[in-house]
């Protein structure tokens, strides 16, 4: 029994030696060494002009350079910055990089922010958005709430009759007229004379 065990061990050792001899050292798989360091991340500041919100409240970022014809697609907080890409012909609106929206750009109102020095090209505004539905008014419903206006006839103007101005004609007398001043003076003299006679009689 021991002879068979020794024979098996010898054959195993010989088989291992023969495998090493025929395969060679280059055929053994080499274990790859894992890197121990971290890959450096390249960071940098974006080149070109930047806008900074100077308005004390949040401002709207719109799809185009107008606050009525274009919808608001986002907001910027006070002090927030964004790369400036272009401007309108008048310089009132600035196009900025705004990730997360269609096209990755938006428009902000220039007087609400500061702009770092740099060249900004003039960019044509995008087409205005088409309304999803066109509002229509039902004529039957509109007629139910409309108040018919009946034309009223204005009164006709009748001019007043012409004014009659009275005329005074001088009164002509056939005799000699006595002046009124002389009559008053005569009556006053008679009154003074009568009072003097009464005074004398009383004494």
Q: Mind telling me the C-alpha Rg?
A: 60 Å
What is the number of E strands? Answer: 7
How are the strands of the largest sheet arranged?
A: 6-5-4-1-7
Structural class: alpha+beta
The proportion of residues in beta strands is 15-25%
CATH architecture identity of the domain at 50-115: Roll
Helix content: 25-40%
User: What's the level 1 CATH class of the domain at 50-115?
Assistant: Mainly Beta
The N- and C-terminal alpha carbons lie at a distance of 207 Å
Mean pLDDT: 77
User: What's the main sheet like?
Assistant: 5 strands, antiparallel
Low-pLDDT stretches: 27-32, 39-44
Q: What general form does the structure show?
A: rod-shaped
- N-to-C SSE series? HEEEEEEEHH
Q: What is the name of the CATH superfamily of the domain at 50-115?
A: SH3 Domains
CATH topology of the domain at 50-115: SH3 type barrels
Q: What's the number of helices? A: 3
Describe the structure.
By secondary structure, this protein is of the alpha+beta class. It has a domain at 50-115: SH3 type barrels (Roll). It has 3 helices and 7 strands. It has a 5-stranded antiparallel β-sheet with strand order 6-5-4-1-7, with no helix packed on it. It has a two-stranded antiparallel sheet with strand order 2-3. Strand 4 (81-87) and strand 5 (93-97) form a beta hairpin. The protein is rod-shaped, with a radius of gyration of 60 Å. The N and C termini lie far apart (207 Å). The model is unreliable at 27-32 and 39-44 (pLDDT under 50).
Features:
single chain, 203 residues, alpha+beta, SH3 type barrels, two-stranded antiparallel sheet, 3 helices, 16% strand
